[in-house]
Amino acid sequence: MENFRINTIEEYNQAYKKSVEQPEAFWGDIAENFLWYKKWDKVVDWSFKDYNVKWFDGASLNITENCIDRHLASKAKDIAFIWESNFEDKPNRVITYQQLHNEVCKTANALKYLGVKKGDRVCIYLPMIPEAVYSMLACARIGAIHSIVFAGFSATSLSDRIQDSDCKIVITSDGSYRGDKSINLKNVVDEALETCASVQHVLVYEHTKIKINFNNDKDIWWHELVPLQEAICEPEKMKSEDVLFILYTSGSTGKPKGVVHACGGYMVYTAYTFTNVFQYNEGDIYWCTADVGWVTGHSYITYGPLLCGATSVIFEGVPTYPDAGRFWKIIDKHKVTHFYTAPTAIRALEALGLDFVSPYKLNSLKVLGSVGEPINEEAWHWYNKNIGKEKCPIVDTWWQTETGGILISPLAGITKLKPSYATLPLPGIQPILVDDKGNEIKGNHVEGNLCIKYPWPSIIRTTYGDHERCKQTYFSTYHNLYFTGDGCKRDQNGYYRITGRVDDVMNISGHRIGTAEVESAINMHVDVVESAVVGYPHDIKGQGIYAYVIAPSTTKDHAILIKEIIAEVNKIIGPIAKPDKIQIVSGLPKTRSGKIMRRILRKVAEGDVNNLGDISTLLDPNVVEEIKNGRVK
Ligand code: PRX
C-alpha cells in the first residue's frame, strides 16, 4: 500500500489536485495496487441526476483474496487479530493471517454446505468475537451478501431487516456478554424468526453456554459444522459492481433502509483511507472500538485494516467493565499504537475522572481517532492531554454508512489540527456547502448544508430493493449533488467542521436514530394516541431523546405509563433508542395544516423556553404554555 501513501502535506495537496482534475487517472493508479482477475474497462461512469454509478466496471475480483491470501506469502505468521474478551482474566485469542485464511475458508464451506450461493443474503447477529469477522469474510469469499445487524437490536428490528433483504441464513451465538450482563441472543433470533419465512438455517456459535432452545430442523451448531470443513475455498470471482454487503441505517422517514455497497470501489476506498488517515506502519497495533454491527466496524475493523495487512485488536466488552480504566488497560497490555473511538465514550470516561487513567502509561500510543459524532472542544482537549499526552495527532474522521469510508479527516501527523474540526477533504472528495435553496455558498468562513459533488469509489450504490428511495433521499434535495444530511461550517482556512444533522435524524451516543422510528415505536403502546420526538443536547451522549406523548384516555399513573413506553421502545427497536425524557401532554403544537412545529419542541427540550420565535401560526397557542410548564428537566 506504500504506493499510495501520502507522506507530507505537499503530497496531499498534489494528490488532491490530481483527484479533482483527473479523477479517473487518480483512482485508476490507486486501483492498480490490488489483485484483480480482470482489470476494468472504465474507472468511473456516473450520473447523480438519475442516480447511477459504476466504479471499475468490467473488472472482477474477490475482496477476501486482497484481505487475506495475497498477504500469506510474506505474512502468514503475522497477527491479524488479537481478541480481548469481555472478562479481563480470560485468555486472549490470537489469530494469524494463515489462521484467518483457514477459518474464513471453513466458514465459507460451511455456508456452501447449508446451501448458500452467490448473491444470497446472510444475516449476521453476533457479539464482538472473531467469528463475526470470519462470517462476514466467508460471505464475501463465496459471493454471498452479508447483512450484519448490531446485536443490541430487538427481535422486531432484526426481523424487519431479515425480511427486507430475504436472508436465507442467520449466523448468531447462544449468548453475548456486555460487562456484567449476559444476554440470550438466540432467544431474540427465535422470536424474530417467527415472522421470517425466508430463513432456512440458523448457524449457532457456542459462546456463553447459556441454555437455548434448539430447533433441530433449522439450527446447526457452529462447532458441529465449521471445524469439519476444508480449510481451502476458492474465492468466487465477483464483478466490481456486485454487491458486497447491505447495512441498515436510519433516515428521517420510515423504516431503516438497507445501504448497499459494491465490491471493487469499496475495497479501493477503504484501503486508501485506512492507510492515509491513520498512517499505519508495519509493526503497529491498531484498535478500533466500534462494533462490527456498524459501518465503522465494517470498514475500519474488518476490510480496511486487513486490506493493508494490519494487526488489530478486537474487543468484546464495554469501556466501563470491570471499571472505567478498561480501555487504557487494554492499550498498555497490547501496546496499542492507533486507538479509534467515539466522542461519547471519551466524554463518559472523562466524567468518571482521571483516577481510572493515571495507573496506565499509554506510552505506546501514536495516533488517536474519533468517529460517529461531532467531538466537542472540551472532550477533544481531554483526549489530547490525558490519553495522547499531547504527542498523538487526533484524526476526527467524518463519514457515514452511505459513504462507506472516511471523507473528511486530517491525515495523522500530516494535516495541521484544529480541535473539533474534521479539517480537510480526502483526495477524491469534493465537498460543497449549499443554502436551503441549493445555491452554492462560496468562499470561506461560511456555513451551510454539506453536499458532495463528485462520486468516490465507496459511495452508496442503492438502498436494497428500492432504488427510488435512494434517489429521493440523497440525490433529489439538491440538483446534481449527494446530500449528506449534515450541517457544516468552513473556516477561513477552508477547514470543515460538521455541526450535526439538519434533518430529523438524531445522533445518540454516536448511534443514528430517526425521530420517526422512535415515534412509531412509542405509538405502538395501547394508551398512546400520538407522539413527537426530538433530540436535545446531552453531556455524555451528545444528544438525548425527548419524547412528547399524548395519551388522553389513560387512567394510569404517569410514572407507570412512562416505564411502559420505555419498555415498548426497547422491545421494538432496542435499548439504544430508549427516550431519556418523556413528557405526557394533552396536545402538540401544530400549524393549521396539521404539521407539528418541531422547532418549538426542540427549543423546549433544550430548555430555551423564552426564545420560541413566532408561534402565531399555531392552531392552539395554549399548548405551548402547557408544554413549557411541564418540561422535563
Ligand atoms: O452526522 C454525522 C455523524 O454521524 C452521521 C453518520 O452516521 P452513521 O451512518 O451511523 O455513521 C457513523 C460512523 C461513520 C453523519 O451524518 N458523524 C460521523 N462522524 C462524524 C460525525 N459528525 C461529526 N464529526 C464526525 N467525525
C-alpha-based Rg, rounded: 24 Å
Helix content: 25-40%
Q: Which ligands appear in the coordinates?
A: adenosine-5'-monophosphate-propyl ester
What structural class do helix, strand and pairing data support? alpha/beta
Beta content: 15-25%
- Strand order in the largest sheet: 12-11-8-6-7-14-15-23
Topology:
Elements: H1 9-21, H2 23-31, E1 42-47, E2 52-57, E3 60-61, H3 63-67, H4 72-75, E4 79-84, E5 93-96, H5 97-113, E6 121-125, H6 130-142, E7 145-148, H7 155-164, E8 169-173, E9 176-178, E10 181-183, H8 185-193, E11 201-205, E12 219-221, E13 238-239, E14 243-249, E15 257-262, H9 263-278, E16 285-288, H10 295-307, E17 311-315, H11 326-334, E18 338-341, H12 343-351, E19 367-371, H13 377-387, E20 394-397, E21 431-434, E22 446-452, E23 462-463, H14 467-475, E24 482-490, E25 496-501, E26 505-508, E27 511-514, H15 515-522, E28 530-538, E29 542-550, H16 558-572, E30 581-585, H17 598-606, H18 622-629
Helix pairs in contact: 1-2, 5-6, 7-8, 9-10, 12-13
Bound molecules: adenosine-5'-monophosphate-propyl ester (PRX).
